[in-house]
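To: structure desk
From: M.T.
Subject: fold request, one chain
Message: Could you run this one when you get a chance? Sequence is below, nothing fancy, just the single chain.
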Amino acid sequence: MTPKDVMALIKEKGIRAVDLRFVDLPGLWQHFTMSTKEFDEDAFAEGLGFDGSSIRGFQEIQESDMLLVPDAFTAFVDPFSAAPTLVLICNVKDPVTGESYSRDPRYIAKKAETYLKSTGIGDTAYFGPEPEFFILDDVRFGQSYNHGFYYLDSQEGFWNAGRVENPDAAGASHNLGYKTRYKEGYFPVPPMDSLQDIRTEMMLTLESIGVNVEVHHHEVGTGGQAEIDMRFDTLVKMGDNFLKYKYVIKNIARRHGKTVTFMPKPIFQDNGSGMHVHQSIWMGKKNVFFEAGTYADLSKTALYYIGGLLKHAPALLAFCNPTTNSYRRLVPGYEAPINLIYSQRNRSAAVRIPAYSRSEKSKRIECRFPDPSCNGYLAFSALLMAGLDGIQNKLTPPGPLDKDLYDLPPEEMTKIESAPGSLAEVLDALEQDHEFLLKGDVFTRDVIENWISYKRENEVDAIRLRPHPWEFALYFDV
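Reply: Done. Structure tokens follow.
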């Protein structure tokens, strides 16, 4: 779609407002809206000004003026606005130099795609994330000098099996008993799965704005855990689609009086929400990850790619699992892929090779440690850069290992590396290991330093300095 096509679409659809969107460094969509009377085709060349100093991870106040340049190809009609509204995803530029802004995550993803082509390894990288999330009915939280708490609830939560629900005039309870048992939410039909229609509405709404969906289902956890899988796409497009995905999921839930969280671990002692990321590299019509007759039909190139992911995993986690809450999920016993190994079928490995099909077109690797709290542009770019580094340096991964890693004897487990256990640790790892990200100027030192300092100051220290509610149970009587 060209700028002229966008202007024609505005007229054809009777669009009254244009919503301009971009992403901050942590990964949330930001926007402002213009009347179509004020929006013209010049915006696609000249851009529109905004204050970058108010955006997380962007400019200092003395250099706050920035430009948003709409990408005509991204246009879609907003499915939630009362007035007909066209959404345009934008790139961020410096108004003085006219250059793309180095801290714009979408620009980083574009550079990653360009770098791939420059290597001669392939011309297209495909990404297929599988985000998980919880659909909840009530969420409350607060923190002050003398208190701190959170409370969440779901009609599906097994903790409500004995709750008095929907009492009639005489006070009799009408709890209908269909509450998802802990770790048993995968795949019951309705009425146990009470969220079927909502997820279908989410799927159909995503498709209406150009995000193709392969499947949706209830996930393992109680309390409304769900998964909706997008069909694979190229890196930048998938970064765009991931933001569309979160926007649609959250707004459909709100339409039904519910709310959604993509927090990796909102519920104690049940499964957390991950985001397995399927990846492959193609050169023209050839899948460079495929070689028939080898282990899992993987080419040497694919093995080296896996080697790069596993070698750089501690640093990758800083972008792929970028919250303190991420490391409540990455613990043994909850299907969390904490072991830095690869396997054809084993879901406890950090990298798995799906065995559903042996055809070239479906051959891919699945990185299982990322979670949906990440900024997709940054996470997908970092994964690609790590894999390319593995190919360039012929990094052979340890393994494969097709045993249940959680049942290995201690002497074997000591030989397997595990993912770091905290955000502080992975930020340290990124500080030490980031040269692979700097190739092709994809990530800059400024971006990496800014990411590390932002996360340390605003998240690691913020959690470290506050008393935890369970500490009172452990220590109040010391």
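Reply (cont.): The chain is about 30% helix and 20% strand. Let me know if you need anything else for the meeting.
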